Amino acid sequence: MPTSTAILILILFLTTTTSLSSSATIPGLDSFLTHQSHLDPKSNNDLFPSLPSSLKKSLASSSPGPLPIPSIISNLLSLSLPIPLHIRLVGPNFSSSSFSLLNSFLQSSVTFSNFNLISSSLSSHSLSIRHSLHLDISLSSSSLSSSLSAAVSSALSSTPSSLRSPLLSIPYSTIDPIISRHFDSEKTDNSVYIYILHLGHTSKQPYAYSYTHSDSSAGYTNCLGTLWTGKKRYIWIDLGAGPVDYGPALSGDGVLPRGEFHPLAALHGRPKSEKALLSELASLIYSAYQVLVVPPLRIPVHFENTLTVQLIHVHTSESKDLSGLDWNEIEKTFLNEANVGELLFGNQSLEFKRYSVRYEECSICSFAVSRSINSYTSRFLFDNYTLIVSEYLDSKRLHQILSDSAEEFRRVAGLPEEEFGSRVLPVYVFDLDYNTILLLDRYHQSVAFKDMVIAVRTDCSDCE
Fold it and tell me: From the centroid of its chain, how far is CA 281?
């Protein structure tokens, strides 16, 4: 639609020339566009003909005058999106000069960069719009530090030692409500806060944070961590917690060896000078900024009116084992985000449907699993080097079989046909009667594709 393209370029041009003309802000334009976005969320119609004559006159009169085409292109390609990032240094061990030194490290390492894109094209591509980091670094109040320190000390004194881990496990909720209240009192629109905690605890036993309410066991090990990021726009990192280690194997994608959440910033091992610590914190903060605040964008993003998530539990036992698989909590989390967190647009809807399939009665299921099993050899050092053969599921092969046999799977499993126009996302959870660990691609318990999610669990009570 050439007319809508013209009005888009005109609006972008006006946003880049606000310094040249104070009348670039058109009264009523924002409300008009907002109203139209609710009426036509897919932008199927050209908005220019429906513009009131008063807005058309304002748009025409607000222009500072015709500019050469190269100047217009240059202005459009120089658009920059400011990203406010607030850093709060919490704890008595940060000096009054810490924030200025940390700011200098970050300013010297951060540059303007474009948003990267994830697309099906093999060639790398980025948006012409750049993001610029706007830092606000300051020391937190002593009251926040005291409250957090008292909460951690109280939790440590009431937590018994674990026979399975050298770390004391305390819930992340010990300190998260305190930080959440502080965030609510300070937050501004579209701002992200990073809290760096350096509370200076001298506990005889190291500690870390747990993220689940269940207890660790031989068959179900809870991973501990040193940071938390929730629904709100903040993240906190406790430098004194840990060191932690977790992962699916001795090596490979997803493994986090002991003390290497961010090995340079952890306060373990040999003492570091303040300058060395702050330089490593700058690296930590910039990594968090790239991963959480300006991650690569996936384009195109297709608009769907209705998304139906099919939770398909493929199990082998007569009585389904739902331990660690809380469907209600999964649905509640996403629906809360959809209804309260404004995850959906005006007329979009999200629904969940559950299905249970017996593995023995599903020929496609057993065929897909058996054809996807591969093996690999690992070398372990016990009394001497020993070769151990282990099995894993090839996620791409499993995905291909389930995709090619979708209609047959629906018939065998008794899944109904979904309404036309609704996008269906099947989530396959295979509960297999295996007494060994069987992961996807050796290291993953779940893998997400564009058109489905595959997860696997095994009955391995003796596995750690």
Answer: 21
User: How does DSSP classify residue 172?
Assistant: G
Give strand ranges (E) for 172-214.
Answer: 192-197, 207-210
Using the structure block, give the residue that is written with the tokens 């099995």.
391
Does this model's pTM top 0.85?
A: no
Phi then psi dihedrals of residue 225, to 5 deg: -145, 180
Cβ atoms of residues 139 and 94 within 8 Å:
yes
Tokens linked to 2: 């050439």
How far, in Å, CA of 46 to CA of 286, rounded?
41
How confident is the model over 142-161, as pLDDT tens digits?
Answer: 899 999 999 999 999 888 88
Residue carrying structure tokens 């802000």: 25
CA gap 105, 16 in Å, rounded = 30
Token pair belonging to 268: 């373990």
Write out the two tokens for 104: 């200098």
**Amino acid making up residue 250:** L
Q: Smallest Cα–Cα separation from 314: which of 454, 462, 460, 449?
A: 454
Whether residue 368 has pLDDT greater than 60:
yes
342 — alpha (psi -120 to 50), left (phi > 0) or beta?
A: left
